[in-house]
Amino acid sequence: MLQVLRERRALRIAGLMAPGGAWLFLFFLIPLLIMAGISFLSRDRLGFPTFPLTLQNYWEIVRDIRFAPSISLEGGLTIRLLEGLYLELFWRSIWLSLLSTLVTLAIAFPVALFMARLPPRYRTLALFLVMIPFWTNFLVRTYALQFMLRSNGPINTLLRTIGLEPIDLLFTPAAVMLGLVYGNLPFMILPLYTSLEKFDWTMIEAANDLGADALRAFHRVMLPLISPGLLAGSILTFVPAIGSYITVELMGGGRTNMIGYAIAQQFSASANWPFGSAMSLLMMIIVTFAAVLYFRSGRGEYRNVI
Amino acid sequence: MSEFAVEMRDVSKVFGDIVAVDHVSMGIRHNEFFALLGPSGCGKTTSLRMIAGFERPTSGEIYIDGRAMGSTPPFQRNVNTVFQSYALFPHMTVEQNISFGLEMKGVSKAEIARRVSEALELVRLPHMAKRYPKQMSGGQQQRVALARALVNRPKVLLLDEPLGALDAKLRKEMQIELKTLQREVGITFIFVTHDQEEALSMSDRIAVFSKGKVLQIGTPLEIYERPTTRFVADFIGETNFLTGKVTYLDGEFAQLATNGGPTFWGRAMPGVRLGVEATLSVRPEKLQLVEQPDGSPNCYEVTVHSIAYVGSDTRVVVMLGENRVDVWEQNTVSTLDPNYFFKPGERAWLTFKPENALVLAG
Amino acid sequence: MASDVILLGERSEIKPPRRIARRGSLSWFALVTVTFFTFAFLYVPIAVLIAFSFNSARTGATWQSFSLQWYERVFSNTRILEAAANSLIVAVLATVGSVVIGTLMAMAMERYQFRTKLAWDAILYLPVIIPEIVMGISLLIFFATISLSRGIVTLVISHIAFCMPFVYLTMRARLADFDKSLEEAAQDLGADEWTTFRRITLPLLMPGIISSALLAFTLSLDDFVISFFVTGVGSQTLPVYIWGQIRRGITPEINAISTLMLLLSIVLVIVAQLIQRRQRT
């Protein structure tokens, strides 16, 4: 038998791939396919999928999209061209997620830069300090943030003792944004740090030597070389942000609706499995689009991150 | 016992559409120090790996001590390999590394202990038994790799560019050590290298590889003084090439006539035919520069182009018509007189004996 | 691109250049400040939580007195203990499962070439990129479709499904760095395939296996979203229990549980770092 295994290379490969391949196929691909299929079914009394096939779910999402240009000044300048319930939902989710990713990047980059340039002794300590939140339960961390910002929480208590008015810090889009940044910061710092640590600083020296100032050296030399870490961190931040459920509930009270949260509703409170599946599919398309961008521009050095 | 320790009969190895080894046949004799020499990618390492059993020939057969190997895996062959990267097991001590092969054979603990200390003595590392590979220098690691292979008393030892990672001085030392070792132990060594100086100084015979084929097999003397092809003449040592048509050919010598230039006399090598294009190959050390023509069959007026003094010899580049020729002359006279040497632009006469030049086909 | 830059001479030491943020300059000071405040931002909420877990008052409104009562409550609450046990059981099973099949897959993908390889490469990146919510509900739908009632079994299945790709990625990276000539040397010295695997490959892969096991273990313990959709009534994991309690209102026991979980994370990080250090030497 051993001889057979030795000879038949194909058998060996099959044997190694089979358990993992079967698992992924059965418990990842098939569920997604079923979900996609359900999105084309109708809803029964209890919210479960049933025949006949229909495009109603998708129609529901785009049904009320209208061209209704408007400009409003409340809460900052808003220029709107299109209107529609679910359009706004998707747009708000993408926008909030992108914004939180950018903010996270803005904070994470200097931190990662600082860490990469520390002498090795301190670097281990800094890494350790970043790893702990990275490996701590996301729910626990978000809860900690919420606890601190509650209306009867420590910060407001502090403000009251000073004599200031307590602030309503939770249940706003800003709170959700804060929660997203807080939650995803370690996921951005680590890949960035990995890329920056490997970066060969003498390249900047050479660029300076050849006449490039700091900005051009950064743009033409550093940026391309650290792009794998940049993109890995961005994906690791954007994807959880857009599918975020915990943050929306804990920090936003469910009032700032985002796609992930809305989808979850369809499978619990307002049961409508087919509709939820349709929204899921659309969200997956968005995320896949982002992922394709990543794979196109970076070189998939993702594996070095872990 | 068969005639050859290792024999390759018409062996080819194809990877996809790359022919790494192209119908190679050769026989390596017992207790021979045999080198596989050639530039990178020429098929020598692949050939070695096929002998070891890490690759299987696409066609042809490999015989070790007369027995066809077929698809026998490496752990059933009585050969051992010293890897280019040494491949010492990092999680084992030197002792454990060396005893690994004996463990696999089921040798008793007492016997293992004895043979391991013997092997350590052989490679002159007697007190390193409990060390780990990462605690040792490159040279020491290499000797451990040797000990690990030799302790199993294989019929054939395969060495894949073992001295590549060492600095120049250590390399020279190890070359002598390896040669001495081989004589002491008395087994066949098959040695892969791209360094022709190494091959020439250490081997009993050399096989010169190029692009998957074996161009020539011979002793260092034969390879150097009687290369049978342009490639071998060029790859081994330095040489000058002059091309022309064969205008005279007898059993021993040939005359080459260049286009509108002088004619040359040299030893005719196999494959040279009358009226066909051929190449004259003459090594720089076989040439002489004199001030007056000396009436010998190969004597030509040349202009000195440049001169490089390297201490032990002087390397002069002269122009013979449009051809550039390198001449190396040993500085056998100790002098401080600058006029002793030729100067660029000067005229001189280049001379060499026909028996010191070769006429090669192609 | 970097091809614009011509490097001449030897690279002596990879030191940061003079002009971008040298020590003592203004930009260096800015970096220090940002880093300091970022770490403060990350840790203050956690520190506050830990502090209040020892507060005898129920809410975070005031500090009453030091008390361990919430911890006592936690350890005497059977539902909490049950949830913790569930979490551990699922985590252990998921770790074992995902490490085994993830490592096998990594070996196949790293060492062999075959036609469907590119497809699998893409598929294996998907679970990392798909939002957890989508994975959670698709599994919910799946288990409903095949009428498998939700419980420990569905939890373990789901956890293996999302942990496996991370194990795969880790092991694939380790395998890529693995020196194959060591295995050839072992075979050359007389070890057959199984012995080579046992004596050479496995011991040298062990740090990587332990790293990915730690990763899988943590991912499983910490998971909320997927577990939420896939858990049954009696099989609540700790994060699911915590979620339920938070929704319900003020529960200071949660502070205590959170502190304990934080402690666990710190221990895991230390273990992971120790392994990394041992592997580097």
Beta-strand content bin of chain A: 5-15%
Compute the number of helices of chain C: 11
The CATH H-level homologous superfamily of chain A: MetI-like
Cα-atom Rg of chain A, whole angstroms? 24 Å
Predict the CATH topology of chain C. MetI-like fold
Global shape of chain A:
globular
Number of domains of chain C: 1
Helix content of chain A: over 70%
CATH superfamily of chain C: MetI-like
Estimated structural class of chain C: mainly alpha
Query: Oligomer, anyone?
Result: heterotrimer
Question: Can you give the helix content of chain C as a percent range?
Answer: over 70%
- Proper CATH architecture of chain C: Orthogonal Bundle
Residue runs with pLDDT of under 50 for 5 or more positions of chain C: 1-19
Strand segment count of chain C: 0
CATH topology of chain A: MetI-like fold
Could you characterize the architecture of this molecule?
The complex is a heterotrimer of chains A (306), B (362) and C (281). Helix content of chain A is 71%, strand content 7%. Chain A is mainly alpha-helical. Chain A has one domain: MetI-like (MetI-like fold), CATH 1.10.3720. Chain A is globular. Chain A starts with a helix and ends in a 9-residue tail after the last helix. Chain B is α+β, with helices and mostly antiparallel strands and 362 residues long. Chain B has 8 helices and 20 strands. The longest helix of chain B is centred in the middle third of the chain and has 18 residues, at 168-185. In chain C, α1 (26-53) crosses α11 (252-280) and α4 crosses α6. Chains A and C meet through α2, α4, α5, α6 and α8 of A and α1, α3, α4, α5 and α6 of C.
How would you summarize what this structure contains?
The complex is a heterotrimer of chains A (306), B (362) and C (281). Chain B is α+β, with helices and mostly antiparallel strands and 362 residues long.
Which terms would index this structure?
heterotrimer; B: 362 residues; Rossmann fold; OB fold (Dihydrolipoamide Acetyltransferase, E2P); 2 domains; six-stranded mixed sheet; five-stranded mixed beta barrel; 8 helices; 20 strands; 36% strand; C: 281 residues; mainly alpha; 11 helices; globular; disordered N terminus
Topology record:
The complex is a heterotrimer of chains A (306), B (362) and C (281).
Chain A: H1 2-7, H2 9-38, E1 41-43, E2 49-53, H3 56-62, E3 66-72, E4 78-83, H4 85-117, H5 120-135, H6 138-149, H7 154-162, H8 173-198, H9 202-209, H10 214-242, H11 246-252, H12 259-266, H13 273-297
Antiparallel strand pairs in A: 1-2, 3-4
Helix pairs in contact in A: 2-13, 3-13, 4-8, 4-10, 5-8, 6-11, 8-10, 8-11, 9-10, 10-13, 12-13
Chain B: E1 4-15, E2 18-29, E3 33-37, H1 44-52, E4 59-64, E5 67-68, E6 79-82, H2 94-105, H3 109-122, H4 138-150, E7 156-160, H5 168-185, E8 188-193, H6 196-202, E9 205-210, E10 213-218, H7 220-225, H8 230-235, E11 240-249, E12 253-257, E13 263-268, E14 277-282, E15 288-290, E16 299-309, E17 313-320, E18 323-330, E19 347-351, E20 357-361
Parallel strand pairs in B: 3-8, 3-9, 6-7, 7-8, 13-20
Antiparallel strand pairs in B: 1-2, 1-4, 4-5, 9-10, 11-12, 11-14, 12-13, 14-20, 15-19, 16-17, 16-19, 17-18
Helix pairs in contact in B: 2-3, 2-4, 3-4
Chain C: H1 26-53, H2 69-76, H3 78-111, H4 117-129, H5 132-145, H6 152-177, H7 180-188, H8 193-222, H9 225-230, H10 238-248, H11 252-280
Helix pairs in contact in C: 1-11, 2-11, 3-6, 3-8, 3-10, 4-6, 6-8, 7-8, 8-11
